[in-house]
Amino acid sequence: MRHTDEPDPGRIDALLDDAEVLTATYDDYDTAAARSRAGARRTVRGAACRQDPGAAPRRYPSAHEQAAHDLSLAVALVLNAPEAAASLSRLVDHDRIDPEGAVVFAALLHLTGHRDAAQFWWQFAAGGGNRTAAFCLFLAHQQRAEFKDAAYWRHQSRHLPGSGRPAAAPALSSLLPETVRHDLLSQCHHGRHPTLPAALEAVINRLRVDSADEDFGEVPQPGPSLTADLTRGTGGAPAG
Questions:
Q1: Is 175 helix (H, G, I), strand (E, B) or coil?
Q2: What CA–CA distance (Å, rounded) separates 198 from 216?
Q3: What is the pTM of this model?
């Protein structure tokens, strides 16, 4: 990413209570109007840059477009991390649920279009002190031109105390097949929103959904076979 200050990569109810920050701030917020205002400011800045050849060009013409790209790249990098499979497996271990696995699960949900559910799980992880989750929330809010929330989570990504647990040893196998992981990064490189192959997307879409959350709607829950299904890349079908 282009940022130079990126963050380092209980009881559930208590963690979620801690994560419920600014949830009602933008109930009446007009995102389209905010983007229109940003576009007008961009026109003015563009004219100034044309008069100043020394001005450094932006890769993307607006803050929310840059944030969308950076979030896609962050998600791809999270899923490429060698510890992603182990973290996700610990999330479904009901004896000791690991909030760090929620960062990985949220990345999968984001790729498959479950944006509100992804925010739910990122807030769960941030409530457990995960700085990467806070950074993803910063980008998600920045993408929607929700700048007050974005500033809050940017601050959190720099100042959260962290989980206090030693880093786990990387898993022997990656969460996604190598070709899929490579393709996610390639799509980001070409400026596209990365997507999973249909078979793997179906794994996510088949997950059990808990009763609708009043803030985030339907929130998919990780299942015990999720890590194995994704690692095999078979979409849940028996390996041949």
A1: coil
A2: 25
A3: 0.71
